[in-house]
Amino acid sequence: MLIGAERMERLGEACVMVLGAGGVGSHCIEALARGGVGRLILVDHDKVSLTNINRQSIALHSTIGQYKTRVMAEKLADISPRTEVVTHEVFVLPENLEQIFAERPDYIIDAIDTVTAKLAAAEFAVRYRIPIISSMGTGNKLHGELFEIADISETSVCPLCRVMRRELKKRGIEHLKVLYSKEKPVKVSAPEEEGGRRAVPGSISFVPPAAGLLIAGEVIRELAGL
Q: Are 106 and 223 contacting, i.e. CB atoms less than 8 angstroms apart?
């Protein structure tokens, strides 16, 4: 009723790859399936843990210890049985991108945590001219309504955007569609990881899902020609 049969058909023929099935990715994936995207390729090596329950759509006490991608695939089969789902339980690394992208999707969604993997995905997308949108940091934030979609060259405040702008420029990439927020990171009380490697970002139930839904909306509108 809202977008018409022709656009729904376009979505049904589309293939979207989502890198990361966590707080942002899991909600994004679910919205894509509910929105009519016909084929989804899910990439994530992680398993569900207790600390995921506050924000990830596939995180339940009953799914702890299971691969996130496989739990997601089971959930999607119950939501939209006609949606084709392919899963890869691997880390995204520069050396395995060709293997992961053996099937070229129509769109790439980057919901990964690590800068190295985000850069590798962006480089691959640029090389093969595949549309991509990359989620910037959603941790240590309390205002999901402040997320916006922009070119990375236009971003400010976000620490991850700053790092990505610098590293992309080194690789000759000036433009990348991103979801980010100008909200200043909240100071958290969580202790550092064991060994003091880096501070653990805090997260809350309503912020990463908001980011995932906004990304899904952007991708669905673009694929449908809205």
A: yes
Cα–Cα distances in Å, from 41 out to 57, 71, 116, 206, 222?
17, 14, 20, 25, 18
pTM over 0.85: yes
Quick check: 194 pLDDT over 70? no
Residues in Cβ contact with 127 at an 8 Å cutoff, skipping those fewer than 6 apart:
none
Q: Which amino acid is at 129?
A: R
The pLDDT value recorded for residue 94 is 87
Phi, psi of 61 (to 5 degrees): -60, -30
Per-position b or e across 168-195, b if 16+ CB within 10 A of its CB:
beeeebeebbbbbbebebeeeeeeeeee
**Nearest-angstrom CA–CA distance, 179 and 219:** 12
Sign of the four-CA dihedral 219, 139, 115, 84: negative
**Helix 115-128, helix 159-170: angle, nearest 10:** 50
> What average pLDDT does the structure give for the chain?
94
The tens digit of pLDDT for each residue in 120-171 reads: 999 999 999 999 999 999 999 999 999 999 999 999 999 999 999 999 999 9
Cα(51)–Cα(17) distance, integer angstroms = 25
